């Protein structure tokens, strides 16, 4: 029987975790520039300001370019790494995979400063390209984690049957393996896209004169009159993140069901 104290703690934890997210749309539709109760009334003004802001549009464009590039590159690298880790044994395998997954446990500020020093040291100017490099480094371990599950649940006898029927390794991967792990690939792309779109610290250090969506939001927090618009933007970002993660989870579960694997837990 569950303890009442444990239930109370769980409820308090959930309130503490999700109350700020719930309050975002509340103040986004509030007709007032001060974020406080009582509310003054309903308005769509902040969303109108949001969609007519030129600087915000430029920052969003940069973030989308970075996020799409990160999703493609991180997922491609994740496919190679996941395939190697689930199908082959080679010297130093555990150590190599550990180094690849290291960004998961390293503080982002350490990763960002290290990349800044290295990139400036070899003469690469800060730009959108350097942000993409940083985001790929941060998102690839997540892509590998998702794709490892997809490749691990894949029945090897299907590939062996293709070999017996005369298919080569490349054609077998293209015709048999890739379609079966496609839900995991889509899930990995969406996860990497979401991580890149929301990431702030690496973009703050590596963007140079370019502005991304998170750095733009940070810069606007100094101006009290801009806070309601940021609340509206936050509402849109939360909604988009929930949609993307839901789609990613759908494809993840579809991939597990398709390959007959066991669901060991996911994003949602």
Automatic annotation (TrEMBL):
Gene3D superfamilies reported for this sequence: MetI-like
SUPFAM superfamilies tied to this protein: MetI-like
GO biological process, one term: transmembrane transport
InterPro entries the record matches: Bact_Polyamine_Transport (IPR051789), MetI-like (IPR000515), MetI-like_sf (IPR035906)
Subcellular location: Cell membrane
Membrane-spanning intervals of the chain: 12-39, 59-82, 94-122, 128-154, 175-207, 227-248
Gene Ontology, cellular component aspect: plasma membrane
Membrane topology designation: Multi-pass membrane protein
Domain ABC transmembrane type-1: 60-248
PANTHER family per record: PUTRESCINE TRANSPORT SYSTEM PERMEASE PROTEIN POTI
Protein family membership: Belongs to the binding-protein-dependent transport system permease family. CysTW subfamily.
Protein name: Spermidine/putrescine ABC transporter
Species of the source: Paenirhodobacter enshiensis
